[in-house]
Amino acid sequence: MYEDPMYEDKRATAPPLQQLTFSLADEEYGVDILAVREIRSWSRVTRIPQTPDYVLGVLNLRGAIVPIMDLRLRFGLQRESYGDDTVVIIVAIAERLFGIVVDAVSDVVDIDPAAIKPVPDMGAVVDTRYLKGLATYAERMVMLLDVEKLMRPEDVETLDAALPAIQEVEVAA
Amino acid sequence: MSAVDLTQFHKTFFEESREGLDAMEAALLALDSGATDHELVHTIFRAAHSIKGGAATFGFADVAAFTHVAESLLEEVRSERRAVDSGLIEVLLRSVDCMRAMLERSSQGQPVADAESEALRVELVQLVSGEVAAPAVAAASMVAPVSGWNIAFTALPHLLQTGNDPLRLFRELQQLGRLEVVRAFVTDSAPAQLAELDPSQCHLGWELRLHGAVARADIDAVFDWLDGDCELTIAPLAEVAVVGAAAPATSGSPPAATGTPRPVRETAAATGAGTSGEGSSIRVGIDKVDALINMMGELVITQSMLSDIGEKFELSQLGRLRDGLVQLERTTRELQESVMRIRMLPIGSVFNRFPRLVHDLERKLDKRVKLELHGEHTELDKTVLEKIGDPLVHLVRNAIDHGLESPAQRKAAGKSETGTLKLNAYHEGGNIVVQISDDGAGLNHAAIVAKAQQRGLIAAGQELSDAEVAELIFQPGFSTAAQATDLSGRGVGMDVVRRNVRDLGGSVGVRSVSGKGSTFTITLPLTLAIIDGLVTAVGSERYIVPLTSIVESLRLRADAVRRIAGGGEVFHFRDEYLPIMRLHRAFACNDAVTDIEHGIVVVIEEDGRRVGLLVDDLLGQQQAVVKSLEAHYRRVQGISGATILSDGSVALIVDVGGVVRLGQRSKAA
Asked: CB distance B589–A153 less than 8 Å?
């Protein structure tokens, strides 16, 4: 019987996930490097009416109008000021671009997918909706961001949040 | 045969076929107007031939079968065995319509043949002189009453090389009915010595008999691939031709058997509407692409020159740097223009549908019309072009239906019996102007006023100027057609035309002289991608208001503003009270001017409703390249898009309609 010597190898070590890590309020987060388009310093954005406060506005990225979201505000934290050392990570999901404002970019690290742990239910203290999982790298805990969920418009989220309640009602009925 | 996925070519086939049909139609109309040009006949024939070939290749057997018959008829015209008369052209024009409808149906995956196409196909078969016996088929439309066919099929030597296989043909025939091989023979082309036989050549012929009620079209479909690769004669079995009542019908009344000719139909309009949902593509002239590549080359050269200067910069090179920047600016501007030009298409593609429309309307309304087209080469944006077709069709119909008089009336009025309808397109400033003018009776002042009074649009006894009367016809639900024909008066009125044109950022107006005719003028922006806007400041933000919706900008005195119950503010403007919409409040801007006296009120209009927009200041006028917010974010109410200012920052473009609606909602709240 024919055996592929490479086959076993691959199974043993799945390709590591490369994550761009950044800090936000003394915590370390990671975002999939494949989703990252560029890292740029803060520049003034144009505010958009009728948007949640964490969407700061839009900026011109080589002709594309890209929305910028502050991750601190999104996670219910305060932002003191925006200055030259404020960093914007531009990410892309399915051709759609958006920027996330973070405190500082740290490193690119390899994370073994097998070492990713699920996010424990931390109740209402921390918003865990936007996390894919937790990983440890060099003794530090890195929270892996779910970029896709971050990008979803809030009405979809409201629906998602309401869904269990609706299902409960249905079950009860 | 290898499994090549032919569906990937379907879109191209449909596109090319549509173009082919347009060419056929145009050539037929040219023939109809008396031109006797062999080249025209060839054009028609070629178009039909390639549609047939394509349809057969891609498996649209019904289309191929239909086109085949039309082609046979055209072949007779081409070889001058048949004279061109208006009856023939009428039939061929209907065939074009029919093929267009069939292609439309096949592109949407619907069944292709219907009773109508089958009836027309039979009519064509009857016309083709060589197949006088075939009209037996006509008696019953879909199912042939013949009990069988004689098929003489002689392969040409190269038959196998074109990928055809006689065995496959026989199998297909067998599926249609019982196949009997009367005789198989070796053709004269076969070499005398067996040693000289080239196995890739075919030297065989067959006489076949196919028993059963088989439609001719089905047999044609089987052999369609072999066009030019074999000698083929198909004839009904001899005994059938004399049987039954079908024979007298043959000699009696050929085309009438299929019923009265169809009335002029909306096929052209229907197909036009059907295509809009497809993924669209653009055909760009190679010269435009070449221009782009040239420009790109220059840009690369300039870039390398500039980076060269930048690498080892000395003050002495300042002159070279400046030259480089000037060159960069020029090339960039040219590049921008070239890219915009790619989206620009000549309006001729829309104008081209009018000869047919006019031809059909002439017959239907018994009027004589001479159509003049001017400025077909005027280019405008593809998006604008696609949306301007229907309003233009409507205006042309109106002009012929209502504008131009009957030949008798024209003679009585001392005019030529043939009316003239002129379509003209030209550039004027940053706009394109399309004019539709006729030399008919002009707007019927009295009838319009009477109708408006009847509809309660104006008070009885009210005196109106010509311009005001002309304005009335653009009111919703307004139609003066004495009797509603099926061409106009179907509820689609001038108001729809105006709305469509407005949606494109344009305007439409009419000038009319009683007894001399009327002229409708449509003014359109060159492109939707660029708008003329007024840059306004609100707090630290910049908003762009489209210039076309601005009525006036003014500074109000505090005492000119009235508060009404519920907190709304209104001001007096040209005999009406307009609500004030504070933009800083609607868009929640900080640091904006809140004192009306210190701000500026921009009066904007949408669908006849006006609102005063309070902004801090006017910063100037600018051409804005419209960018979508939805591309990376989502739709925002009151904002139609964004643009990039000269300093690289983003400014939002105010959606006038949305803001007016916002204003009304807040007033209602």
From this structure: no
List all residues 6 or more positions away from B289 whose beta carbon is below 8 Å from its beta carbon: B342
Query: Nearest residue of B to residue A64 by CA position?
Result: B627
Q: CA-CA distance, B594 to B615, in Å (whole number)?
A: 9
Predicted pLDDT at B248: 40
For A46, the closest of B586, B588, B650 (CB atoms) is B650
| Residue of chain A whose alpha carbon sits nearest to that of B645 | A60
CB pair distance less than 8 Å for B633 and A50: no
Among candidates B253, B526, B262, which has minimal Cα distance to B384?
B526
Write out chain B residues lying below 8 Å of A57, CB-based: 650
Q: What are phi and psi of B395, to 5 degrees?
A: -65, -40
Tens digits of residue pLDDT in B552-579: 999 988 888 888 877 688 888 888 888 8
Dihedrals φ, ψ of B424, to 5°?
-135, 135
Check residues B272 and B391 and name the one with the higher pLDDT: B391
What is the CATH number that goes with domain B145-245?
3.30.70
Confidence of residue B655 (pLDDT cuts 50, 70, 90): confident
- DSSP conformational letter for A14: P
Least Cα separation, residue B667 to chain A (angstroms) = 18
Closest Cα of chain A to B584: distance in Å? 10
What secondary structure letter does DSSP report for B104? H
Which residues on chain A place their C-beta less than 8 Å from a C-beta of chain B?
44-51, 55, 57-60, 63-67, 96-98, 153
Which single residue is written with the structure tokens 């497809």?
B278
Per-residue pLDDT at B139 exceeds 60 = no
Question: Which CATH code, of 3.30.565.10, 3.90.226.10, 3.10.180.10, 3.90.79.10, is assigned to B348-525?
Answer: 3.30.565.10
pLDDT confidence band for B118 (50 / 70 / 90): confident
- Mean pLDDT for A140-167 is 69
Check CB contact under 8 Å for A46 and B633. Answer: no
CA distance A33 to chain B (A): 19
Sign of the dihedral through C-alpha B39, B42, B44, B47: negative
* B210-223 burial code (b ≥16 CB/10 A, e <16): beeebbbbbbbbbb
The verdict on a CB contact (< 8 Å) between B632 and A51 is: no
Chain B residue at shortest CA distance from A91 = B632
pTM: 0.51
- Taking one residue from A and the other from B, the number of pairs with CB-CB distance under 8 angstroms is 66
Distance CA B102, CA B108 (A): 10
> How is chain B split into domains, by residue range?
6-142, 145-245, 286-341, 348-525, 530-668
Size of chain A in residues? 173
Which stretches within chain A are classed as H helix? 5-12, 71-74, 147-151, 154-172
Nearest to A60 among B631, B634, B644 (CB): B644
For residue range A32-79, what is the model confidence (pLDDT) as tens digits? 999 999 999 888 899 998 888 888 999 988 888 999 999 888 888 887
Q: B6-142, superfamily in CATH?
A: HPT domain (1.20.120.160)
Instruction: Kindly state which CATH superfamily the domain B530-668 is placed in.
Output: CheA-289, Domain 4 (2.40.50.180)
H helix runs in B318-428, sequence order: 318-342, 348-351, 354-365, 382-398, 407-412
For testing the chain B interface, which of A47, A66, A93 should be mutated: the one with the most B CBs within 10 Å? A47
- List the single range of A145-154, B473-482, B499-508, B532-541 with lowest mean pLDDT: B473-482
Specify whether the CB–CB gap between B599 and B566 falls below 8 A: no
> Are A67 and B648 a contacting pair at CB < 8 A?
no
Q: Which residues of A touch B631 (CB under 8 A)?
A: 64-65, 96
The answer to whether the CB atoms of B588 and A49 lie below 8 A apart is: yes
Question: Chain B residues with CB inside 8 Å of A59's CB?
Answer: 649-650
Of B603 and B211, more confident: B603
